[in-house]
Amino acid sequence: MRATTDDVSLAQLRRTAAAAPMLGAEVELEYLRRIQAHDDGRALRALLDAHLRLVVATAARFARSGVSVAELVAEGNLGLVEAARRFDAGKGTRFSTYAAWWVRARISRFAMGNRRIVAAPSTRNARKLLAGMRSVERALQQASGERPSREMIAAVTGTSAEDVAMVESALSARDVSVGPSDEDGSSVELGANDPSPEQAIAEAEECERRERVVALALAQLDRREREVVQRRILEDDAETLADIGRMLGLSRERVRQIEARAKRKLRAVLVAEVA
């Protein structure tokens, strides 16, 4: 199969990123100090080169949005510049972790502003996911008391983690309140109610800790219980017990019993693990 222009560009960018020299922790902090104190161009260039892997990897996740990968990388670099100017080493967060938040925010904002594919997914599952992502997340969180991972959402909706990541990014970008850019386009002002990078990082780490608990709870459900939970809790338009019963060849009362049993299993595992 012939490679597209974006495929070639992404391959070239990955090779360039792989060849870029990494920075030691002390050197990186010194470059950040120079950037913040003197707007040092050489230090900034070295920092951009060292973190090109991060920018390219993030841009690659949005490659299917229909936007040029080169443009996404350029936007990601602007996010990296913003991170360098705002970073506070005294807060104990690694620069790469902090920068990842800004890079993703900038790229997702640009991809959504110029999207051609995400706005009109080509598959039935993707369209369904785009329309119902928020309700799926809410339903899973209500059922488990924990924020669901992408893998969990994919598992219960019959899609892939990659699809979930794309739609999640699209919806997150849509929710972010972005103010006017500086003259050079490098400044991204977030709304007052949006979490700070530090808060977002802490939430992400806590979410990772909870993933095992959620996975363990949902793993206790058999195929029929999962089917009932998905149709009764996770769908935008919850189906009635009677409708599910007809689909499964069961009585309305039997479906109700399966739903109640599934909820008991989820609660039992979650209480035991979180306690």
Automatic annotation (TrEMBL):
In terms of InterPro entries, this protein maps to: RNA_pol_sigma-70_dom, RNA_pol_sigma70, RNA_pol_sigma70_r2, RNA_pol_sigma70_r4, RNA_pol_sigma_r2, RNA_pol_sigma_r3/r4-like, Sigma-70_Factor
**DNA-binding found in the keyword field:** yes
**Molecular function (GO) terms listed?**
DNA binding; sigma factor activity
**Which residues does the annotated region (Disordered) include?**
175-195
Q: Which UniProt keywords apply?
A: DNA-binding, Sigma factor, Transcription, Transcription regulation
One of the GO BP terms on file:
DNA-templated transcription initiation
Q: Where would I find the RNA polymerase sigma-70 domain in this sequence? A: 240-266
Pfam families in the record, alphabetically? Answer: Sigma70_r2, Sigma70_r4
Signal sequence annotation: none
Q: Which family does the record claim for this protein? A: Belongs to the sigma-70 factor family.
UniProt-recorded name of the protein: RNA polymerase sigma factor RpoH-related protein
Which organism does this sequence originate in? Sandaracinus amylolyticus
